[in-house]
Amino acid sequence: xxxxxxxxxxxxxxxxxxxxxxxxxxxxxxxxxxxxxxxxxxxxxxxxxxxxxxxxxxxxxxxxxxxxxxxxxxxxxxxxxxxxxxxxxxxxxxxxxxxxxxxxxxxxxxxxxxxxxxxxxxxxxxxxxxxxxxxxxxxxxxxxxxxxxxxxxxxxxxxxxxxxxxxxxxxxxxxxxxxxxxxxxxxxxxxxxxxxxxxxxxxxxxxxxxxxxxxxxxxxxxxxxxxxxxxxxxxxxxxxxxxxxxxxxxxxxxxxxxxxxxxxxxxxxxxxxxxxxxxxxxxxxxxxxxxxxxxxxxxxxxxxxxxxxxxxxxxxxxxxxxxxxxxxxxxxxxxxxxxxxxxxxxxxxxxxxxxxxxxxxxxxxxxxxxxxxxxxxxxxxxxxxxxxxxxxxxxxxxxxxxxxxxxxxxxxxxxxxxxxxxxxxxxxxxxxxxxxxxxxxxxxxxxxxxxxxxxxxxxxxxxxxxxxxxxxxxxxxxxxxxxxxxxxxxxxxxxxxxxxxxxxxxxxxxxxxxxxxxxxxxxxxxxxxxxxxxxxxxxxxxxxxxxxxxxxxxxxxxxxxxxxxxx
Length: 567
What we know:
Elements: H1 3-14, H2 25-50, H3 53-60, H4 68-91, H5 93-112, H6 117-145, H7 151-179, H8 184-187, H9 189-203, H10 227-246, H11 256-278, H12 287-290, H13 292-307, H14 309-321, H15 327-355, H16 357-374, H17 385-411, H18 415-453, H19 467-475, H20 484-517, E1 524-525, H21 529-535, H22 545-553, E2 560-561
Antiparallel strand pairs: 1-2
Helix pairs in contact: 1-21, 2-6, 2-7, 2-9, 4-5, 4-6, 4-10, 4-18, 5-6, 5-9, 6-18, 7-15, 10-11, 10-18, 13-17, 13-18, 13-20, 14-15, 14-20, 15-16, 15-17, 16-17, 16-20, 17-18, 18-20, 19-20
């Protein structure tokens, strides 16, 4: 038997995941179905609830705090991602995924029985504790099950779940609230989650392989959980995200609540560093930031989360306030991005196998920067197909950017580190999105405030003072004075243009991060050598072993390497 065949068989037998890379698709089918159902629970969550907010507020009250239905869930998901990532590495994927699904379903059932807004927010946080386990563990298991050559396909399937949810969520939420009760938007999670639970319990066998030579059940291999580190991370992330989510909305940025939250987050972050440096098995190990590959991708996807605020938050407002579209049509303008993204991601392997992961990511984020910068060039008021076309191009560009980087990181680590590495990527993207909401919200408020302050004298009477007020006023444009509606539309147009220019700057930042920090060729861990000898390195062109060992092998006893250089 040739050396290549031996290595390939060894990788499959000892485990780059829970099934060998050449396992028949039929054996993985039920597990993939369960992963897609689990991802659907998380993906449908925000989109389906957004349409029911008026009915929820009308029934429970609490209009002043209803935004915490989303913020509380986001906080819980974000701060628990690194914790679940580490737990999945030390205790296996299956128990963490099952725990996440159960917590999500218990939270859903509790939300359906909420008696006031405070209880509903608390139960949404419980849902978020399950959602954090779902998002990170599903992505990690997908990487465990499939060799590098097939990972774009499974990741594209998971991306298609988000795309379908973006389209189906608002429609389903509208139907349930119109012909039923808002509580059904939570109860509908129960049968979906039950099927996912059954499939995972019945068909997913987590071998907890720690690599080709170190089995999971080796003496002393099972690590203790760093609970002090987990609590410190939860405190630091929770305080920071509360400050950026509520700052400028619930209270001014320079007010006592904001300053106290930011100071508390800084103290908790310092405590996190001190605790993690002394922990035997830290939740966020130092190698996550010391390895060039992972740290570069974390920073780049943090910038991706930042720029994504522009289309997801501000484009629907632009479509309704400037173009005069209804909510459904405005949602379609945005949803075309979620249609082109998974298609581009599925085809990205054809690109990075030819030019490498780094160059593929640069091509994608460079294209995204150009698309975002082109938004201010759209005519006023324009037609709906024009921003829709830009969003179609943006989704295609970002599909070439995000997925190759995720695959590159997952292939550079072994099973015992893959959960932590994957969770760090998702954590940075979520934090970037939260910071982006605060940053671009401040840009939007400053731009709109300036436009309203410098309105012509004859139009100043009765002008609203913020973006929400402007959007509401334009929904009743007939009641506005002559010329006021057009001035407000132009003000919103200018505001969204500035936000998109800020998003283009974030894309440029991501481009520079990948260009300057990411390795020219991504390393391949020893777990993937069998794949690498057959399919090439993680970026389609093998990297020399010395740099790969410098990336991963020197840290935490990792046996990293790369496939022989085929160039």
